[in-house]
Amino acid sequence: MLKPSSSSIFYVLLVWVVGSCYGFVLLSSAAGQNGDVKLFVPGEETLYNLHSTVVLNEKNGESKSVGYIVSGKVVVQVVWSKEYEKILKIQLKEPKLHIKSRKAPSPDGFVFHTSRLQEFTNEPFYVHWDNGKITKILVNAKEPTSLVNLKKGIASLFQFQLLDGTYEETDSSGTCTVSYTSQEPRKIVKTKRDCISSDLPYLKNPELSLDAIVTSTRQVDYVFDQNYQHFQTVRSQETHVMSVSSREDFGNQVHSDHFLEFAEASQDKISALRGNTADDALKKLISSENLSEESLRTDKESGQNEDAKGFSESVNEVRELLASELLGTAGPAKAFLKLVYTARGASKKDIQKTLNSKKNAKILPQLMDVLGSSQTLATYEAVMGYLDLTKEEQLDLSERYLWALSLGSNPNQDIVEKLFNKYKKSENIPVKLNETLLLTVASMCRRLTTSPINHDEKINQKFEKLVLEKLRKSKDEESYPYLRALKNLRSPTTIPDLLKKIRQGSAKEGALAWKALIAFDRRHWTPEVKKAAKKTFLQLDRKHDSSSRSIASEILLESRPEDATLKEIIHHLASNDTAYEITQYALQKIRMMAEDDPELKRRVVQIIKSDKKINNYSVLNPRGLSTAIKRYFVQNPSGNGSLISLQEINSAIVKRGIVNIVWDKNGDTSELFSLGIFTSGLSSFRSSDSEESEEDSEPTTAGMELAVLGTQLRPFVFFNGQGELMGHVWSGTASERTTAYQALIMMQDHLEYLRLGSGFIVELDLRGAVSFDLAGKVEISIWGRTANSLVEKCAGIFLTGSMKIDTSFVRSQVEFTTSLEPQLKLESDIDFSANMRCCMRLSQIDVQLKHNIFKIERIPGSKHKLRIAKSRKYVSPGKSYSLNRKNNEMCSSIHQ
Q1: One domain, residues 529 and 549
Q2: Does one domain contain both 476 and 383?
């Protein structure tokens, strides 16, 4: 081994010290408070060549792109100067547009094309340069926004600092955090990050799995000539990529290269401005010329879409696609997205005209989905002018509108306040609609708290106070709507009231309180919640409903319990609890979670092996029919989609059955859809067994609970009492396939505008919708003592994402569309003639995913149009999901 000498160590240290300090020494000495830097010398005119390139493409950039180059000459003169404060006169000469063309030579692929850019009024503009920062820009008031933005992009290149450090700057990119670093002699690198454009429209879905992922890199390189008298080159490069969170290989990108290159400098007679201060000189300029004072921040142009249509006209074009029988396919979802986009800019009069048209009578429910998802005051006022919430005959339409409002990821606070006031004065509104109104306000209040737009928290506080007051005064059935509202609201300050209902309320109230608590984010499961869950599961304080106990066990297990708590749960499996379905449910839940969590699996195995009372066949062998399973239908680097089926059995009958569609990304879990079935009092339909049946005395009832995108809808009751049940059995009304729930739902809703350093503004738009149809049928044979049921979830999903630059002289756009039509079937065959046998089959059909990419470029005022398109198809084969061994054995027995 070579031992370094003391001289070599000294040399290494010297190099390290010099290298570390090089940038600071270079720039501070070169600057010397701008000492040796002689940029912008009074009386000198500097000429630069401009090339500003913008290219749009799909995310991977594998194929041909669209885009353009703006070229020209930039002349800079110093017309007023005082130490390190200057006024620069800048003129953009001979601006030309170069576009992508199939006839263009390789490799650049750009050719010159005439455009309005050459026709614009184009006068010199002025900037106030103060020790490296540009505080003002003066432009001709008659110039179009497109040209002014381009000039702001040019001016922004002259804003720089010579000393290393981090600053906050506002320029054509917006307000950014900017870092300066010297890397080589005569070179400074400026890096921009966290650029904010709070004045531009912004929509964002707070659910990570349903949002867009936008990544940006921005860098400006300044290279001086040897004498520090001019910029040799200034190059601003940036890339922005938008992708779908749930499928990150689908997306678009835009790249901008804004380049100034020194051409020549000359000493000419330049007309200097007079004034003791820069402000004096600027005021004289404004008064003598038609100039407008602005900041470097670019302005969004008004809509340039010449093909824009009104709402009623757009509905006429897609009316046939909105037919109820087509819901569950992708066509209605595509039409829905188009109409939501149009509705957001539509007038109240246009919407009223559409609603009153007889041609639209059959698609009014779907139009309510559209108008609710648009979340504008104009649509709200038009709908409320059409609907009368007190009329029973308009119940379905009213609910459809309120459901759409409750599912929107970006609620309108004004609408929330108006609905809240309606609820407070809801004496004449039907009971079902009144509950839907309550649940809608609760959901919208919760979504307001996660909205990227600031809102007044008073409305949330007022609503929560009202719900808690009503809950405290109500008992039994009167309290149910308020408990469901607290599930949608999910405010941590309501947890004490929910725990009180668990301790002191009826069994059903306790179950609803637990359903509310399990919907909260895990971080809100306080020690008090976990303590109450332990008491409920083990029944340490009182007798609890079986649903309460099963939910309590879920909370205990999902809250990452300590070894002592986990040991108590596992030890309870060997207890004398006569409600063995509860212990079976807990065991199934442990097994399901252990499949995805190796550490939990290790802990569980260690606890079981350490106790012979538990580690034996009689305890771990499935005795009951309750199940808890998780099966993946999508697994990719962008996230995992899974089906979670929870079946809580009581007296050999499903008491609480849930099928959840869940998306997990980086540990962040989103429940996209949840179908729940609940029953009580059905013990007369099964043969006797030894299990404790505390529900035998409850009224006979069955129904369905739906939660969409985390929002609980009011329950749908199939029948109340044995009379209604037998009526369905004898008439056969449930034996035909019947739609239980249909809707058009906005899934992705992301809108963002990015200011490019070159002065252009790019629109990022990601919108996704699902056309949903839930249907089923049940056949019951009293004589054969058998039952067969089918539940079908059909969804048509359509997603579109685009990046678009729309100016008055060029328009470029890249867009992708994705569509698929998944279908899930849950079939159950039950034989209760002798020993209870239940066979459940969960299956998924083949799914074809279609992915299309479109790239378009136009020049307004000309016939030029470039369009590039390509398509891909992916097929996901159908599958049947294995539930568990016990179910497989019963299926073999029934279908032998």
Answers
A1: yes
A2: yes
Q: Say yes or no: 520 and 440 in one domain.
A: no
Residue 829 corresponds to which tokens in the numbers above? 């065959």
Rg (CA), the chain: 34
* Residue 546 backbone dihedrals phi, psi, to 5 degrees: -60, -35
In the predicted structure, residue 427 carries a pLDDT above the cut 50: yes
- Cβ atoms of 439 and 480 within 8 Å: the answer is no
Q: How far is CA 680 from CA 684, 789, 812, in A?
A: 11, 18, 60
Q: Which of 599, 624, 649 is the last residue of a domain?
A: 624
**Token pair for 236:** 């601003």
Are the C-beta atoms of 150 and 759 separated by less than 8 Å? Answer: yes
Biggest CA–CA distance in the chain, Å, is 109
Looking at the DSSP assignment, which residues form a beta bridge with residue 673?
661, 708
Per-residue DSSP letter, 240:
E
User: What is the dihedral sign for C-alpha 474, 476, 480, 481?
Assistant: negative
Q: Which residues lie closer than 8 Å to 574 by C-beta, 6 or more apart?
A: 613, 614, 619
Average pLDDT, integer, range 216-224: 96
CA–chain centroid gap for 74, Å, is 42
8 A C-beta contact, residue 728 and residue 719: yes
* Residue range 777-796, pLDDT digits in tens: 777 776 667 777 788 889 99
- Using alpha carbons, list the distances in angstroms from residue 454 to 8, 200, 205, 447: 61, 14, 15, 12
Contact call for residues 781 and 787 (beta carbons, < 8 A): yes
Domain that holds residue 568: 491-624
402 within some domain: yes
pLDDT at 127: 95
Report how far apart the first and last C-alpha atoms of the chain are (Å, whole number): 78
pLDDT digits (tens, 9 = 90+) for 118-156: 999 999 999 999 989 998 999 998 999 999 999 999 999
* Residue 72: its H or E element: strand 66-82
pLDDT, tens digit, for every residue of 830-850?
777 767 777 888 888 899 999
User: Rounded to an integer, what distance in angstroms lies between the CA atom of residue 822 and that of residue 793?
Assistant: 8
Q: Write out pLDDT tens, residues 360-403.
A: 999 999 999 999 999 999 999 999 999 999 999 999 999 999 99
317 with 396, same domain: the answer is yes
Residues 540 and 619 in one domain: yes
pTM to 2 decimals?
A: 0.88
Residue 27 belongs to a domain: yes
Residue that the structure tokens 């909205």 belong to: 451
Q: pLDDT at residue 542 above 80?
A: yes
Residue % of the chain over a pLDDT of 70: 88
Residue 107 in domain: no
Beta-bridged to residue 217, according to DSSP, are 239
Question: Do residues 371 and 464 both lie within one domain?
Answer: yes
Claim to verify: residue 459 and residue 394 sit in the same structural domain: yes
Please give the Cα distance from 768 to 750 (Å, whole number): 9
**Residues 336 and 474 both lie in one domain:** yes
- Alpha helices in 117-260, H assignment, sequence order: 145-156
Q: Label residue 31 by pLDDT band (50, 70, 90).
A: very low
β-partners of residue 669 are: 664
Q: pLDDT tens-digit profile of 503-522? A: 999 999 999 999 999 999 99
By DSSP bridging, strand 247-267 and strand 174-184 are unpaired
The answer to whether the beta carbons of residues 490 and 445 sit under 8 Å apart is no
d(CA 332, CA 315): 12
Helix (H, G, I), strand (E, B) or coil at 1: coil
Q: Residues of the chain with pLDDT > 90: what percent? A: 55
Q: Of 168-172, 537-541, 813-817, give the lowest mean pLDDT range.
A: 537-541
Task: Look at the chain and report how many structural domains it folds into.
Answer: 3
Evaluate if residue 57 carries a pLDDT over 60.
Answer: yes
Kindly report the backbone phi and psi dihedral angles of residue 538, in degrees, each rounded to the nearest multiple of 5, phi listed first: -85, -5
Whole-number Å distance between alpha carbons of 615 and 618: 9
Q: Does residue 338 lie in a domain region?
A: yes
